[in-house]
Amino acid sequence: ALITLRQLLDDAAEHGYGVPAFNINDMEQGLAILRAAEACDAPVILQASRGARAYAGDIMLRKMVEALAEMFPGNHIVLHQDHGNNDATCLSAIRHGFTSVMMDGSLKEDMKTPASYDYNVEITGRVTKAAHAVGASVEGELGVLGSLETGEAGEEDGSGAEGKLSHDQLLTDPDQAVDFVMATKCDALAIACGTSHGAYKFSRQPDGDILSMATIAAIHEKLPNTHLVMHGSSSVPQYLQDLINSHGGEMPQTWGVPVEEIVRGIRMGVRKVNIDTDCRMAMTGAFRKVAAEHPKEFDPRKFMVPAMAELEKLCRERFEQFGTAGRS
Ligand code: G3H
Ligand code: 13P
Ligand code: NA
Ligand code: ZN
């Protein structure tokens, strides 16, 4: 059944687990994620970006998630808007059956220009009021995602700040976080701690200089009852880089967020863990393997079935690692 983010994260906090929020764009991703959730008896957050809504269409997305809820009656599902850029995006998502929205006011509507603190408080507070009036949850974001190594947002094609960012912008200020949550009444708070979107997060195995778990600890100390959200949480596992690159891919060597660090974060109040890149890599790795090994193949299902299996395996691992397994 569909539930709200608030309902799910309250349970996660009570029992000390984290919930992966997997991005969804199509039926194959939905089936793979829910098969994993069913196998692990886990609740799950399905999140759709503005790009996903444009790709599949709101009606298709809604009916698809309704179908998944019907096919997997034992699993609680949250349907969440990822990185809403203004009121209209968030409110139209709710009208289309989303039970939760992210109002990302860390950036202006263009999702490229860092916004002022006052703008962020104002728009996030306004969306929260409207969402709560109809029973939906809201995730806000304070701090700008980006690399502490380069000062850049990372992802070139998606959302992400343009230009160089300072350490002050890249690490959420704990005192400001307290003020922000009080002022906006958001249900969950996305923080910046040195992670960024996409595959190219770190140029080496991250340490405390470039992945600031200390920031999460400091925020949790001041806001022990706030559900924290970690964006850019793909681990970019070596086995998936190898799967892609040994079948014709040319991804440069890169490092993501180690699963152990995410697990440490979960012990420090992280409840929602956003993962898109790993899912993309799992499916793409499987596609490439089929294409390389069976060049005569042209039935898309012969590509989709192994891709779904690879994604299901990844999701199962995350449910087990984050303690979500057994909690649906
Ligand atoms: O925020 C980034 C997510 O990975 C969604 O990406 O906007 O390309 O769907 P997208
Ligand atoms: P990744 O690119 O690390 O998977 O992050 C996804 C994300 O934060 C979506 O909001
Ligand atoms: Na989100
Ligand atoms: Zn994100």
Topology:
Blueprint: H1 5-15, E1 19-23, H2 27-40, E2 44-48, H3 50-56, H4 58-71, E3 77-84, H5 87-95, E4 100-103, H6 117-133, E5 137-142, H7 167-170, H8 174-184, E6 188-191, H9 213-222, E7 227-230, H10 238-245, H11 259-267, E8 270-275, H12 277-293, H13 300-321
Parallel strand pairs: 1-2, 1-8, 2-3, 3-4, 4-5, 5-6, 6-7, 7-8
Helix pairs in contact: 2-13, 5-6, 8-9, 10-12, 12-13
Description:
Dihydroxyacetone phosphate binds at residues 198, 232-234, 274-277. This is Fructose-1,6-bisphosphate aldolase. It catalyses: beta-D-fructose 1,6-bisphosphate = D-glyceraldehyde 3-phosphate + dihydroxyacetone phosphate. With 328 residues, the protein is an alpha/beta fold. The protein has one domain: Aldolase class I (TIM Barrel). The chain is built from 13 helices and eight strands. The chain has an eight-stranded parallel β-barrel with strand order 1-2-3-4-5-6-7-8, surrounded by ten helices. Helix 8 crosses helix 9 (213-222). The mean pLDDT is 97. The structure holds glyceraldehyde-3-phosphate, 1,3-dihydroxyacetonephosphate (13P), sodium ion and zinc ion.
Provide a compact summary of the structure:
The chain has helices at 5-15, 27-40, 50-56, 58-71, 87-95, 117-133, 167-170, 174-184, 213-222, 238-245, 259-267, 277-293, 300-321; strands at 19-23, 44-48, 77-84, 100-103, 137-142, 188-191, 227-230, 270-275. The chain is of the alpha/beta class.
